[in-house]
């Protein structure tokens, strides 16, 4: 099959990029995989660029893209993209933002979120470390059950709704807050603000959406209210006053903290502090933004973005 329009399509992070998607893209143009050597040369002649989350797509990066028309990011968030600079250059962002119907079939992030809740409650991290170090003492590892707990969901969107459903199925009571008028099960309790959720919950799960420039919705006061509770964040690190949360976690003020995200992931960040905190405190879990990183979900999202790209290109003809 001859390409619709001869274009140069760059895959910036080619590790396990879906082979079927590569074939579909080859029907659009020439597919080029970055070999990790000369980034400037790789970007210079591209019409289309596929990215994940390893690079900050800022003004300096975009300046290297002399011909870029489409920036494809199979993500819901754009924290890695300077949206204003991309818009100024007339580059179209093709992402998963707002694709609710399709994303309802992608369960990787809610499943990971639920897993982190159970990991905190049952002290999985400490149990694994104990056995690895030759121990076998279950009395040191008495955890808690999800059944009967009050779980607070901040952001009852696609991920939040699914996590609430999982927790509810295990016998937990759900309190939630969302700035939108969202659909919820009849048994779930809607709260008027975040602090109301915090005051009523033993487990707090942050699932809210984030747009570049938004201020944290979990500030210092809210972090103080998390004392003695479990807190899970698989949304975005920028949604939390990270300095306050780190301080509270280091002081073991919370029963447990699990975060899949940190602020400024691909630039200057507090990863070293999070790592030190996780090493020192057995009920602090940090995972490297793997919420959506399953083989099947990544393949399906790459395929979805490729189809959307083809639609954009055909409209140009």
Question: Could you please describe the fold and organization of this structure?
Answer:
The protein has 317 residues and is of the alpha/beta class. The protein is 37% helix and 15% strand. It contains 13 helices and twelve strands. The strands form two sheets. It has a seven-stranded parallel β-sheet with strand order 8-7-6-9-10-11-12, sandwiched between helices. It has a five-stranded parallel β-sheet with strand order 2-1-3-4-5. Helix 8 links the parallel strand 6 and strand 7 (173-177). Helix 6 (108-121) packs across helix 8 (158-169). The longest helix is centred in the last third of the chain and has 22 residues, at 295-316. It is globular and about 65 Å long. 37% of the residues are buried.
Sum up the structure in keywords.
seven-stranded parallel sheet; 317 residues; five-stranded parallel sheet; alpha/beta; 15% strand
């Amino acid at each position: 099959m001859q390409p619709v329009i001869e274009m140069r399509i760059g895959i910036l992070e080619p590790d396990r990029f879906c082979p079927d998607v590569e074939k579909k893209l080859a029907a659009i143009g020439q597919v080029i995989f970055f070999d990790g050597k000369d980034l400037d040369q790789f970007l210079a002649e591209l019409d289309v660029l596929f990215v994940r989350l390893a690079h900050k797509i800022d003004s300096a990066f975009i300046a290297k893209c002399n011909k870029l028309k489409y920036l494809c990011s199979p993500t819901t968030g754009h924290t890695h993209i300077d949206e204003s600079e991309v818009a100024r250059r007339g580059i179209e962002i093709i992402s998963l933002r707002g694709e609710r119907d399709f994303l309802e079939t992608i369960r990787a992030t809610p499943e990971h979120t639920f897993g982190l809740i159970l990991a905190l409650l049952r002290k999985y991290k400490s149990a694994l470390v104990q056995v690895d170090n030759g121990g076998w003492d279950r009395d040191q590892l008495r955890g808690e059950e999800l059944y009967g707990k009050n779980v607070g969901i901040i952001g009852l969107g696609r991920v939040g709704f699914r996590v609430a459903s999982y927790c509810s199925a295990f016998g937990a009571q759900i309190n939630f807050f969302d700035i939108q008028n969202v659909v919820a099960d009849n048994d779930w309790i809607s709260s008027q603000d975040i602090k109301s959720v915090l005051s009523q919950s033993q487990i707090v799960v942050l699932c809210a959406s984030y747009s570049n420039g938004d201020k944290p919705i979990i500030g210092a006061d809210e972090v103080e209210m998390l004392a003695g509770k479990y807190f899970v964040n698989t949304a975005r690190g920028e949604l939390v006053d990270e300095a306050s949360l780190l301080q509270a976690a280091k002081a073991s003020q919370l029963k447990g903290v699990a975060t899949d995200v940190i602020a400024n992931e691909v630039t200057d960040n507090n990863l070293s502090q999070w790592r030190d905190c996780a090493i020192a405190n057995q009920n602090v879990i940090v995972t490297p933004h793997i919420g959506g990183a399953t083989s099947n979900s990544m393949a399906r999202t790459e395929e979805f973005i490729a189809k959307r790209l083809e639609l954009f290109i055909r409209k140009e003809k």
